[in-house]
UniProtKB/TrEMBL annotation:
This is 3-dehydroquinate synthase. One of its GO terms (biological process) is chorismate biosynthetic process. Belongs to the sugar phosphate cyclases superfamily. Dehydroquinate synthase family. The chain crosses the membrane at residues 101-122.
Length: 366
């Protein structure tokens, strides 16, 4: 088992990464002071609840916890205000009070949604992240919680840190292949923005990672989380540095919103967005073309898409969505761009023609 600690001004919490951790959930809860006199509500989705939810419920009840479970339909379409309201109702029905704790059991959708419920319910109660997707090594750490709006990704939300992240890598064995691959996009992002050695390691180990070799998976998740922890610890609320975690997200979030949150997984959209950002970096910062090539090759080694369907998702709609990005200031487009592998920065005020040119190169039919 590997452990990382997130240390912020107002709180500190552990991230545990290892195999077989779910069966020890009551022990880990006890370690962070969540004892059986506090009511628990597991929030999960229709795919994860039957696989792991019932088992967790039984083991918690056996330890004397009063615990219930609320389930939302699996997938990004559940990350909205309707499901948020439904879950608040479930918390009230079960009689959660300010001492109660929400357990988010699932991928990033459940983590963001349940975390937002925890942030808002009675003005904030504690929650624990129990990630079950690879992608959720990113979403479970750092306290960004929230839901989507039809016009913009994650535009309704809060910063609310979990009390603990308990990552049982055994859960990844049941993950659909497309979702496993999607998760590698954020792993790769963590290397591309911060850690060139990690990028080399990923290049070398792609086959074993795709084959889910346990010790390699733990290493990849640990190193990805390490990058996230280093950045969040310095800038919890994104006043500056944290924005680099948004590499690939200006285009990626636009693709997700314009496609109605159903065409691309988050990781697929971010993979395409990172190639777009690298292409734009070559135009705007004069970044070496080898960075574009390397980015594309690495994503392709993990079977991720590197082009988008330009026929289906017109440039003008993407540009409009990019103007609603949370990094925008004074109505200027904002991108995280790369200087070299492992080094990125936020750039504002990029001319629309440059972005259009990068999007043209990113189209499937290009
Ligand atoms: N808060 C953050 O910092 C942050 C960071 C990155 C991503 N995100 C958000 O995370 C979301 C994407 O998360 P995701 O990719 O985990 O998607 P997801 O939560 O929708 O999970 C993907 C699919 O896999 C299923 N699934 C999950 N775990 C499983 C398992 N162990 N076995 C079988 N099936 C399983 C789910 O039911 C779902 O159908 C996006 O909304 C994105 O915006 C947030
Ligand atoms: O933690 C962060 O900060 C990130 O930007 C991580 C991203 O991978 C993640 O998708 C996040 O939800 C995006 O945040 P947003 O503020 O752009 O909605
Ligand atoms: Zn992301």
């Amino acid at each position: 088992m590997r452990k990382l600690t997130v240390s912020l001004d107002h709180c500190t919490y552990p991230i545990y990464i290892g195999a077989g951790l779910l069966s020890q959930l009551p022990v880990y809860l006890d370690e962070v002071g969540i004892v059986p006199d506090r009511k628990l509500m597991v929030i999960s989705d229709t795919q994860v609840a039957p696989l792991y939810g019932e088992r967790i419920l039984a083991s918690l009840k056996q330890q004397g916890y009063q615990v219930d479970m609320a389930v939302v339909p699996a997938g990004e379409s559940s990350k909205n205000l309707q499901q948020f309201e439904y879950l608040i109702g479930e918390c009230l029905r079960f009689g959660l009070d300010r001492q109660s704790v929400i357990l988010a059991l699932g991928g990033g959708v459940v983590g963001d949604l349940a975390g937002f419920v925890a942030a808002a319910y009675m003005r904030g109660i504690p929650f624990v992240q129990i990630p079950t997707t690879l992608l959720a090594h990113d979403s479970s750490v750092g306290g960004k919680v929230g839901v989507n709006h039809a016009l913009g990704k994650n535009v309704i939300g809060a910063f609310h840190q979990p009390a603990m992240v308990l990552y049982d890598v055994d859960t990844l064995k049941t993950l659909p292949t497309r979702e496993l691959i999607s998760g590698f996009a954020e792993v790769i992002k963590h290397g591309l923005i911060w850690d060139a050695d990690f990028v080399q390691w990923l290049e070398k180990n792609s086959a074993e990672l795709l084959a889910l070799r346990p010790e390699k998976m733990i290493e990849a998740i640990y190193r990805g989380c390490e990058v996230k922890v280093a950045i969040v610890s310095q800038d919890e609320r994104e006043s500056g540095l944290r924005a680099i975690l948004n590499y690939g997200h200006t285009i990626g979030h636009a693709l997700e919103a314009v496609s109605g949150y159903i065409h691309y997984t988050h990781g697929e959209a971010i993979a395409i967005g990172m190639v777009g950002a690298a292409r734009l970096s070559a135009k705007v910062l004069g970044t070496d073309e080898s960075v574009v090539r390397k980015t594309k090759e690495l994503l392709e080694a993990f079977q991720l898409p590197t082009q988008y369907d330009g026929e289906r998702f017109p440039e003008d709609r993407l540009l409009l969505a990019m103007k609603r990005d949370k990094k925008v200031r004074n109505d200027e487009y904002a991108f995280v761009l790369t200087r070299k592998i492992g080094q990125v920065e936020v750039v504002r005020g990029i001319a629309e023609e440059e972005i259009r040119a990068a999007l043209q190169e990113l189209r499937k039919d290009c």
